[in-house]
Design goal:
Structural class: alpha+beta
Radius of gyration: 29 Å
Strand content: 25-35%
Order of helices and strands: EEEEEEHEEEEEEHH
Number of helices: 3
Strand order of the largest sheet: 1-2
Shape: rod-shaped
Helix content: 10-25%
Bound molecules: zinc ion
Largest sheet: 2 strands, antiparallel
Length: about 150
């Protein structure tokens, strides 16, 4: 006659003889063996959420850190995964490979300066060009405004 079926812990491969066992991801675990593969925090506690991806068991924080989306690239408009390296300029985030002058696509080398103007990342040459093009031309604006189209009755 067989005693009650023993479950084997997926974490340590030992039989579970505790009063409580955890069932997660279709497997059984000792209370202390269900841990986040990243930070080793216990996931057996009540209220903790467990995430699983590519054979990893993760707590919510690590899951978001590794697989969450950290934002959208201001250059190509594609999402940036949280584990990717990013460049930041002002409030914008860029893929490393997208971080280049938005006019000539020249990449910046380490230590090289970039300029942020009109929500665009620019090299020094194009920063100068853009700034000159957009210099306000007050006089001509005034003249255009003076032309009335539907003036008379
Ligand atoms: Zn175990
Ligand atoms: Zn964790
Ligand atoms: Zn991008
Ligand atoms: Zn440029």
């Amino acid at each position: 006659m067989k005693a009650q079926t023993k479950h084997t812990c997926s974490g340590c491969d030992l039989p579970i003889t505790d009063r409580y066992l955890l069932e997660a991801l279709g497997r059984y675990w000792h209370e202390g063996c269900l841990k986040c593969n990243c930070c080793e925090c216990k996931l057996g506690d009540i209220g903790s959420t467990l995430y699983s991806k590519s054979n990893l068991i993760l707590c919510k924080r690590d899951y978001l850190r590794l697989f969450g989306i950290s934002g959208v690239c201001a250059s190509c408009n594609k999402p940036i995964a949280a584990f990717e390296f990013v460049m930041r300029a002002a409030k914008n985030t860029y893929h490393i490979e997208c971080f280049s002058c938005q006019v000539c696509r020249q990449r910046f080398r380490v230590g090289e300066k970039f300029y942020f103007y009109n929500n665009k990342v620019l090299c020094w040459d194009h920063y100068r060009t853009e700034k000159e093009c957009e210099r306000p031309t007050d006089e001509s604006t005034m003249e255009w405004k003076a032309v009335a189209l539907n003036g008379g009755p």
